[in-house]
User: Which sequence fits this backbone?
């Protein structure tokens, strides 16, 4: 379902490259290659301004239909865009959660009023979002959500706690899965609420991570409020909507990241050449296997695109998250082994203004530490295997 006259892929890639070369410079030049995994704290305000710069060129929400402010690109051009963006050193997208997770969810499940209220702010890079799903006892088992919301007049009043909420400290809004039917259990009686972050009933506490910075947070709701009409889908129908968002998170969103992986791998290989580890045949073999796996990752992504239906990936695509999460973790381990004894020193002399001062780690250390989380967020490896077994292979359901 494309609604734009699509240019050829070669022309399109050249257009992206030209635009990036012209705009990711001057006031934005310092953002090149910054703000990616493990580096989310870098230049946050500037990266938010960069979102608006992207929007001015029509380079946000490129896969969304044009009636919602996107470019209506078919999947293969959307992936080409993400690849060229990464190749040009495009910074980690401050608007990723709004554009990649919430936007598609609103397009599929929300009323026209909610779409008109929220989609333009995501496209324009003026409103930023976080994802309020996980709780201390509801991660893989999300149906165990205990955060409650009750209607009081024309507002929902929310009490409870979320955890691991990425970027909450910089977000204007949060999409919150809350229990809205008293006495309901599991996936029944949940609603998908849109909640403003800037209010007295919400407290955000950063969780310092092994990378030395706090990308995710605890979020406490103590009588927090949002308007009664800011519910996506029907009240009580939140599970279906929440699962829709997760499908976007595990699907299209990451199809273009092989270019960033390739760049990281080039960096590791270059380091091995410089420090002599490349002379070791076992290390060379290991790095070549990683190169092969990045290629396979790209082919898997390409294979997933055999349908032009936006956001409708074939069944085989269910292996993608598992595949790249393991690969990225193995790349992080290889980076440390290439560094050898230097890997034991996490301090980094290449820190720049905007970095987290003394705590700043080398890009290789960030890769190593942050990639440990790739096999957890967006559904852990074990959960992905359960999903592949049950939904792709039709095996019996896990006993509950
Ligand atoms: C970097 C990062 C960013 C995140 N950002 C967000 C965010 O923005 N918003 C948000 O809501 N959440 C976020 N999360 C939370 C993430 O979704 C959860 O960590 C994840 O769902 C796992 O839940 P848990 O941590 O509670 O682990 P648990 O669910 O307690 O799992 C512990 C272990 O048990 C295994 N396990 C659990 N159930 C099963 C099962 N049925 N079968 C086999 N094995 C099982 C798991 O695989 C895991 O190894 C983030 C996490 C990370 C690491």
Assistant:
């Amino acid at each position: 379902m494309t609604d734009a006259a699509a240019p050829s892929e070669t022309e399109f890639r050249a257009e992206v490259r030209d635009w990036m070369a012209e705009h990711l410079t001057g006031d934005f030049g310092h953002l090149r290659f910054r703000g990616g995994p493990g580096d989310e704290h870098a230049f946050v305000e500037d990266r938010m301004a960069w979102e608006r710069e992207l929007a001015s060129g029509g380079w946000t929400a490129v896969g969304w239909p044009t009636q919602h402010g996107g470019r209506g690109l078919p999947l293969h051009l959307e992936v080409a865009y993400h690849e060229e963006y990464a190749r040009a050193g495009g910074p980690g997208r401050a608007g990723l959660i709004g554009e990649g997770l919430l936007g598609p969810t609103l397009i599929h499940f929300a009323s026209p009023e909610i779409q008109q209220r929220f989609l333009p702010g995501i496209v324009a890079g003026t409103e930023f979002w976080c994802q309020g799903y996980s709780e201390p006892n509801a991660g893989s088992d999300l149906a165990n959500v205990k955060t409650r919301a009750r209607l009081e007049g024309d507002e929902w009043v929310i009490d409870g706690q979320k955890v691991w909420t990425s970027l909450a400290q910089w977000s204007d809004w949060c999409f919150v899965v809350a229990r809205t039917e008293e006495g309901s259990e599991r996936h029944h009686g949940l609603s998908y609420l849109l909640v403003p972050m800037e209010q007295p009933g919400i407290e955000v506490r950063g969780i310092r991570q092994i990378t030395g910075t706090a990308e995710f947070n605890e979020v406490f709701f103590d009588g927090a409020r949002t308007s009664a009409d800011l519910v996506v889908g029907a009240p009580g129908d939140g599970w279906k909507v929440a699962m829709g968002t997760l499908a976007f998170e595990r699907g299209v969103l990451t199809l273009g990241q092989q270019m960033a992986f390739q760049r990281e791998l080039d960096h590791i290989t270059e380091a091995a050449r410089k420090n002599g580890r490349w002379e070791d045949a076992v290390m060379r073999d290991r790095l070549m296997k990683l190169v092969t796996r990045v290629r396979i990752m790209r082919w898997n992504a390409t294979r997933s695109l055999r349908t032009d239906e936006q956001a409708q990936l074939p069944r085989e695509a269910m292996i993608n998250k598992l595949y790249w999460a393991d690969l990225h973790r193995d790349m992080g381990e290889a980076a440390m082994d290439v560094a050898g004894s230097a890997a034991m020193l996490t301090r980094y002399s290449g820190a720049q203004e905007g970095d987290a001062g003394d705590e700043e780690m080398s890009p290789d250390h960030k890769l190593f530490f942050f990639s440990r989380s790739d096999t957890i967020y967006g559904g852990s490896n074990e959960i992905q295997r359960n999903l592949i077994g049950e939904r792709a292979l039709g095996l019996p359901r896990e006993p509950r």
User: Anything to note?
Assistant: The chain is about 40% helix and 10% strand. The beta strands are 129-132, 148-152, 155-163, 173-179, 190-196, 202-206, 217-227, 231-232. The first strand starts at residue 129 and ends at 132.
